[in-house]
C-alpha cells in the first residue's frame, strides 16, 4: 500500500478530519505536516463530537500512532488543552503520540503580534486572521528567531525568548499588551509546559524513515485548503503555510521516495472564512440556506462561513498543484433540499474569453464572471446511503458530471457526519 496524503482542495473546512478518520483504519501511523491550531477538524463517532486542532484525526483509533511534523507551528497552550480534552474522553495517547523536536512554537507574544498587526491594517488590507499567532510564528521561523521545541530543554531558552520579545516590543510600541509582556513570567510558563510534553518529544523524521524502511504505509493529514496555500492560493488572502501535497514531505522530514496517493477533499458546494475573493459566493438566501443546512460555522472561531456553489475552475487548480489522484466529496446530503443546484463550469473575463482554471492574481479574479450549469435537485434524502448505485438518479448525474469535467475519479462521497456515513464509489 502507498503512503496517502489527504489535503483540502478548496478554502479549508472541507471535512478532511472525517476522511482521515475514515481511512485511518487502513493505516497505523498518521502525520500532521503543516499549519497550527487555526485548523479545526471535526469528527463524529458514535454520536459524539470531537474537535481537534493539532493532534491528527487518527487519534480516536486506539491502535494508531500520531505524529506532529516540523512543518507545524505548535501552541503549547492549545496542545495541552487538547490532550486534557482527550484524557477526559478516555482517549489515551501515551506511547502513540509524538511531536517533532524541531517544531517552531507559537508563544503568547505571537498571538498578540497577530492581533496588533491586523489592527494596523484598514479596509481590504485586513486578511481576516484567526489572531492565534500562526503567521508571526512562521515569520519567526523563516527569520531564524523561533523558539523550537528542543530549545525548551536547552540553556539558550531564556536568551532566545528575551531577544524575541524585545524584537516585537520595538516594532509595536503602541501595543500595551506586548509592552507588558514579562520575560520571567513567560519563561516560567514555558518551563512548566515543557515538563508536561517532554515524553511526547521525538525525532519524528527518524521515526518515519524507519517505518518506511519496513514498507509501513503512512497517512498524512493536511490542514486548511489548497486555495489558502501561501504560494498558490488567493494571495495575500491566504494562510501562512504550504497546504499542498508536496508539503507532506518537507513538513514531516520524510522525503519524497515513499510514493504517494493524493486524496483531495472538497465539499459538494464551496465555503470560505475570512477575507478574500470567492468567485461563486452566494451572498443571498441561497448562501444562507447552505450555511444553515450545513452548519457552516468555524470549528475554531465559530465565525459564519461564506457559502457558494461548487467551483470547477478552482478545483482544477487544486488538482494541478497537488497532483490529486482521487477526490472525496463531502456534505452531499446538504444538497438534498435544493430544487436546483448550480455548478460553476468556467469563468469569462471582460473580453468574454473563457477561463478554465482559477488565476493566481486577485486582480484578474476580481474581473471574472462565473458561468453556471444548473442541475435539478433530487429532493430526497441521501443521508447514510453507502452504495453509489442506490443514490437518486439526479444525484448520480451531478457526480458523474463533476468527475467528467475534473478528469479525476471521485472515489469517496460523504453522506453524513458520522464515520459510517461514507460510500466508496
Structure description:
The structure is a single chain. With 425 residues, this protein is α/β, with parallel strands linked by helices. It is built from 13 helices and 20 strands. The strands form five sheets. Strands 9-7-5-2-10-1-11-15-19-20 form a ten-stranded mixed beta sheet, sandwiched between helices. Strands 14, 16, 17 and 18 form a four-stranded mixed beta sheet that branches. Helix 3 crosses helix 4 (134-142). The chain has helices at 16-23, 76-88, 108-120, 134-142, 157-171, 176-179, 183-197, 204-213, 247-252, 285-294, 312-322, 362-366, 393-406; strands at residues 3-8, 29-32, 41-45, 48-52, 65-68, 74-75, 97-100, 105-106, 201-202, 219-221, 260-267, 270-272, 306-308, 310-311, 326-330, 340-348, 354-355, 369-376, 409-414, 422-424. The chain folds into three domains: 3-102 and 201-264, Adenylosuccinate Synthetase, subunit A, domain 1 (Adenylosuccinate Synthetase, Chain A, domain 1, 3-Layer(aba) Sandwich), CATH 3.40.440; 105-197, Adenylosuccinate Synthetase, subunit A, domain 2; 267-424, Adenylosuccinate Synthetase, subunit A, domain 3 (Adenylosuccinate Synthetase, Chain A, domain 3). The longest helix has 15 residues, at 157-171.
Amino acid at each position: 500500500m502507498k503512503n496517502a496524503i489527504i489535503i483540502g482542495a478548496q478554502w479549508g473546512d472541507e471535512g478532511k478530519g472525517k476522511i482521515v478518520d475514515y481511512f485511518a483504519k487502513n493505516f497505523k501511523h498518521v502525520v500532521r505536516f503543516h499549519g497550527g491550531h487555526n485548523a479545526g477538524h471535526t469528527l463524529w463517532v458514535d454520536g459524539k463530537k470531537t474537535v481537534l486542532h493539532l493532534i491528527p484525526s487518527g487519534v480516536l483509533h486506539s491502535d494508531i500512532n500520531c505524529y506532529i511534523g516540523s512543518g507545524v507551528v505548535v501552541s503549547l497552550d492549545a496542545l495541552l488543552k487538547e490532550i486534557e480534552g482527550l484524557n477526559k474522553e478516555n482517549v489515551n495517547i501515551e506511547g502513540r503520540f509524538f511531536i517533532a523536536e524541531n517544531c517552531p512554537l507559537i508563544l503568547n507574544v505571537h498571538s498578540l503580534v497577530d492581533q496588533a498587526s491586523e489592527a494596523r491594517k484598514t479596509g481590504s488590507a485586513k486578511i481576516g486572521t484567526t489572531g492565534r499567532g500562526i503567521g508571526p510564528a512562521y515569520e519567526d521561523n523563516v527569520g531564524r528567531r523561533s523558539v523550537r521545541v528542543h530549545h525548551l530543554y536547552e540553556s539558550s531558552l531564556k536568551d532566545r525568548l528575551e531577544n524575541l520579545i524585545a524584537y516585537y516590543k520595538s516594532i509595536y510600541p503602541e501595543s500595551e499588551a506586548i509592552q507588558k509582556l514579562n520575560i520571567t513570567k513567560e519563561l516560567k510558563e514555558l518551563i512548566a509546559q515543557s515538563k508536561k510534553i517532554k515524553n511526547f518529544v521525538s525525532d519524528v523524521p527518524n521515526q518515519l524513515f524507519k517505518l518506511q524502511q519496513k514498507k509501513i504505509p503512512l497517512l498524512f493529514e493536511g490542514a486548511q485548503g489548497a486555495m489558502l496555500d501561501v504560494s498558490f492560493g488567493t494571495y495575500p488572502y491566504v494562510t501562512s503555510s504550504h497546504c499542498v501535497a508536496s508539503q507532506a514531505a518537507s513538513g514531516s522530514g520524510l522525503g519524497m521516495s515513499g510514493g504517494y496517493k493524493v486524496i483531495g477533499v472538497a465539499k459538494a458546494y464551496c465555503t470560505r472564512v475570512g477575507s478574500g475573493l470567492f468567485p461563486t459566493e452566494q451572498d443571498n438566501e441561497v448562501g444562507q440556506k447552505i450555511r444553515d443546512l450545513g452548519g457552516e460555522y468555524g470549528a475554531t472561531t465559530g465565525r459564519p462561513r461564506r457559502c457558494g456553489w461548487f467551483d470547477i475552475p478552482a478545483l482544477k487548480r487544486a488538482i494541478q498543484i497537488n497532483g490529486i489522484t482521487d477526490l472525496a466529496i463531502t456534505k452531499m446530503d446538504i444538497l438534498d433540499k435544493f430544487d436546483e443546484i448550480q455548478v460553476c463550469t468556467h469563468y469569462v473575463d471582460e473580453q468574454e474569453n473563457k477561463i478554465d482554471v482559477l488565476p493566481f492574481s486577485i486582480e484578474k479574479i476580481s474581473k471574472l464572471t462565473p458561468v453556471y450549469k444548473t442541475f435539478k435537485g433530487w429532493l430526497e434524502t441521501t443521508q447514510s446511503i453507502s452504495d453509489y448505485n442506490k443514490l437518486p438518479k439526479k444525484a448520480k448525474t451531478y457526480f458523474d458530471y463533476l468527475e467528467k469535467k475534473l478528469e479525476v475519479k471521485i472515489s469517496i462521497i460523504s453522506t453524513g457526519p458520522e464515520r459510517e456515513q461514507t460510500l466508496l464509489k
